[in-house]
Write a structure and sequence with these properties.
Structural class: alpha/beta
Shape: globular
Strand order of the largest sheet: 4-3-2-7-14-15-1-18
Largest sheet: 8 strands, mixed
Number of strands: 18
Number of helices: 13
Radius of gyration: 20 Å
CATH superfamily of the largest domain: LarA, N-terminal domain
Length: 371
């Protein structure tokens, strides 16, 4: 079984920076690093306006630890397919700075891994349906990596943790296209008010408003899902139900994980999952919707499958809250599968199963509680 270290948040838990350091010491990650090695710290800097992303102070604790080995850490992420403030390196660097990620605050520079426009990558052969993966250059060329994930729920993956951080977060646009292309959004005509917001924000010019309703040109649509996120009326959705779209995407995501990790030697990638401010939507959103479960703690492991499985199990074992559209709040009892409750059509476990089949990690784990 893979080891997963866990520091539980409790009444007497003090100073998250000290606990991050404690986790790093227990993993003995220093023993895996050599002086002068380039170490990517892969994280999500948060969309502009998001307040749930990982705090810069946590990242600084990781940077300081790595620097003690003489290695050279840098912070990194990749550009997005959808509109927003992370679709090119210039806007993304501005967004990172607005959210508090600067050289002065963290002690490490930021490098957008797939370049100015998401076109810088190294092609890696993979055994799945895609056949190859476009791993972002700065990640493929790094000697080691720490993958820091703010664990939360996700509208298409079910959950966002270490595996999604690797699959979507470490690949250039070419592979992002391949993963998203298995499903494309549809307009619910009875809900569409013809406001044109989706058309305005579609960077692929795939949406038009015709006779007061949005129309999608599927020859241009790449399936990025930006229109789903931007619609204020719930009039655009991904057609997961009853189809194999999500299954294909999750299998391709597992293949992408395999490709990314193929660029690193064994024990050169460490995973940290933060189980705090766990929201229904990912850090790409700017929603102020409250967290669904209480803050639980921090996990660390060398196994991305094990750490995500442990994160899911801990979230499901905790009490939670369901915020309904009418403003009411419903309690969620411990033991309820919260991913299935929120996104019943998403077979999230496929990502875990496929990653395990590809030898990325194991779903069976030993949880080592430090507090």
């Amino acid at each position: 079984m893979s080891e997963v270290y866990f520091i539980r948040f409790a009444k007497d838990t003090r100073n998250i920076l000290r606990h991050v350091r404690e986790l790093l010491e227990l993993t003995k990650f220093k023993d895996c690093l050599r002086e002068g090695e380039l170490v990517a710290i892969k994280l999500h800097f948060g969309e502009r306006g998001n307040i749930r992303h990982t705090r810069p102070q946590v990242i600084k604790a990781i940077v300081d630890y790595i620097k003690e080995t003489g290695a050279l850490p840098f912070l990194t992420d990749t550009t997005t397919l959808y509109a927003g403030y992370r679709r090119n390196a210039v806007e993304y660097l501005e967004t990172a700075a607005i959210n508090g990620f600067t050289l002065g605050n963290t002690g490490a520079p930021i490098i957008i891994a797939d370049g100015l426009l998401g076109r810088d990558y190294r092609e890696v052969k993979t055994p799945g349906e895609m056949g190859s993966v476009a791993v972002a250059s700065a990640i493929a060329e790094a000697d080691a990596m720490v993958v820091v994930s703010h664990f939360k729920f996700h509208i298409s993956f079910g959950f966002g943790g270490a595996l999604k951080n690797l699959a979507m977060g470490c690949c250039a646009r070419k592979t992002k296209f391949d993963m998203h292309a298995v499903a494309k959004p549809e307009v619910l005509k009875d809900k569409c008010v013809g406001c044109g917001l989706c058309a305005k924000h579609c960077v692929w010019s795939a949406i038009s408003v015709i006779d007061g309703k949005a129309e999608i040109n599927y020859d241009k649509c790449v399936g990025c899902g930006d229109c789903v996120a931007i619609c204020r009326y719930g009039a655009v959705r991904m057609p997961w139900g009853g189809g194999s779209h999500v299954e294909k995407m999750l299998k391709r995501a597992a293949e992408a994980v395999y490709g990314v990790l193929k660029t690193f030697e064994e024990n050169k990638v460490l995973y940290i999952n933060l189980l705090a401010e766990i929201t229904r939507l990912c850090d790409c959103a700017t929603s102020l919707e409250p967290p669904i479960v209480v803050d639980l703690g921090i996990l660390a492991s060398y196994d991305p499958v094990a750490i995500d499985q442990a994160s899911i199990d801990l979230v499901n074992s905790a009490p939670g809250y369901l915020f309904k559209e009418d403003g009411s709040i419903e309690a969620i009892e411990p033991g309820v599968n919260k991913i299935s409750l929120l996104f019943p059509q998403v077979k999230y476990w496929i990502l875990l199963e496929e990653a395990e089949k590809l030898g990325v990690g194991k779903r069976e784990y030993e949880l080592i509680c430090l507090r």
